Here is the input.
Amino acid sequence: MARVSHLSLLPLLLSLVSASDVPPPSIQIPLPEEEAVYLALESINPTIPWRTLFPDDLCLYGPHGIVCELFPESSSTAAVAAVPHVTELNFGYVSDFSSNPSCSLNASFPTSLSALPYLRKLFFFSCFTGEKTTLSRTFSNLSSSLEELVIIENPSLSGKLSGILGDFPQLRRVVISRTGISGNIPDEIGNLRNLEQLVLTGNRLHGAIPTSIGQCLRLKILDLSFNRITGRFPDEIGQLTELVKLDLSSNHLIGPIPAVLASLDLLEFLDLSHNRLTGGVPIALAELVNLREVFLTGNPLGGGIPEIWSKLKGIKGIGMSGLGLVGNIPSSMGVFLENICYLALDNNFLEGELPEQFKKLESSAKEVNFENNLLRGRIPFSAAFIESLGGKLKLAGNPKLCLTEKISLLAGDFNSCNKLEIPHSTLPSSEALILKTPPFFRIFLFILCFLNFV
Here is the structure.
């Protein structure tokens, strides 16, 4: 089956017409589909005379963003005819290089899309930004062959997902980002067994993550960040063993991070920051050997930094700010984090010296933050590294840190370490020796001194 846009369909049609053994395909899409597309265009921008501007076949001469494909269909003759059908609709300005049909401030969600039985991909970018519009219930009447649904930057689009998503068993990609859509993530999400990407970031979703999410075994990307999701981190996420990216940041999740996280051995990106998670930095991270970035910032996890870094040599970004961490910074972080670019351990209660092994981070680190802890002793970094990072090396709020060289940091000035100073003698003075001797011996010494004087 050939996939062609309206710009590339004409040469293919001409070649098909020239073939003597195949009847020419229909030049126009079926009239019900054509009418459905016109109605959709009029919904997203009623100020443009779409029918006048594009009076001919919408596949060949329609606006950018309408994509058709040829499908074989039986005819009255023995031969099979190829008929074009609309398979993809893209609405809203993205860039000058992708001039989709533009949307007006009074755009409304199209209700005619259910008349497009071959529709596979549907895209709305910044279409619903003015008057409030609701995700139409007729949306659930779309073709069950829908594979991709992308709705980005539509703040005035409201409604709920319940009763909608479960009707599309072929869905592989769902991206609904920065809209006014609210309500729970419906249990029916588990019916989407072909789903590979679920991005529901920056909406008004609340309630718990449904346990049925564990049935979406093909998921590679799960992003539910910047919502109002509550409850615990569900163990069922541990069943999604094909996950590459997991982002649940900026919600209201509570409780510990479960040990089942260790099952996600393909995971490369993990962001659980800015929730209410507790129970310490999970040791299960050590099993995520493909992990490249982990962000736990802004959770009251508490506890110390675990010794897990020997298995995470490929990690490039670590965000563990404001976790309530205590104790020393493990020297193993300096030994094994040879590829680290970003390291943030600020605003904790970490104490002790910065390990000398952290000097090895100079080969890769681009931003390092140890601000507002209880660290002391010599800063192990070289003058060249400190000056090269400038404001991206943050050490302020640790008044007992010092430098062996007089270097001014953008984060603040530090005292010079004086490790060469000769320590004060710990030998006791003669007065102290006298005071520590027994009384009878002190009397004997006094008599001896008196006789010598006489």
Q: What stands out?
A: Residues 1-20, 420-437, 448-454 have pLDDT under 50 and may be disordered. The first strand starts at residue 3 and ends at 5.
